[in-house]
Amino acid sequence: MNQLYGERDRIRGQEKTLIWLQTEMGELFEAYLKNNMNVLEEEVADVFAWLCSVCNLFGIDLEKVAWEKYPSICPKCQKSPCECSLR
Ligand SMILES: [Zn+2]
After folding, report:
1. Alpha helices in 1-87 (DSSP H)
2. Predicted model pTM
3. Which of 22, 28, 34, 59 would staple 43 via disulfide (CB 3.0–4.6 Å)?
4. What tens digit of pLDDT does each residue of 9-39 get?
């Protein structure tokens, strides 16, 4: 994703890229509300792509931090599957 969009992301900047991620999250929820699975899949891909762009701009290794925080067990209850109360 960095190779594909990195230069454009750096020109756009952190704040505007975060706003785009927020916008895509809104579109994902809208697809859910319309119960449109095809659009939902597209929006999930868009959210992931923009999240990758945000991580690239902040120098965050998404895969590393995600696996560190969410290994094969829940970071709160230390169980798999998670046994925490629903929020
Ligand atoms: Zn848990």
Report:
1. 2-12, 14-33, 37-58, 62-69
2. 0.90
3. 28
4. 999 999 999 999 999 999 999 999 999 999 9
User: d(Cα 6, Cα 87) in Å, to the nearest integer?
Assistant: 36
- Could you tell me which of 63, 64, 53, 55 has the C-alpha nearest to residue 6? 53
Say how many Å lie between the CA of residue 70 and the centre of ligand 1: 10
Domains of the chain: 2-69 (1.10.287.1080)
pLDDT band at 8 (very low <50, low <70, confident <90, very high): very high
The two tokens of residue 78 are 């230390």
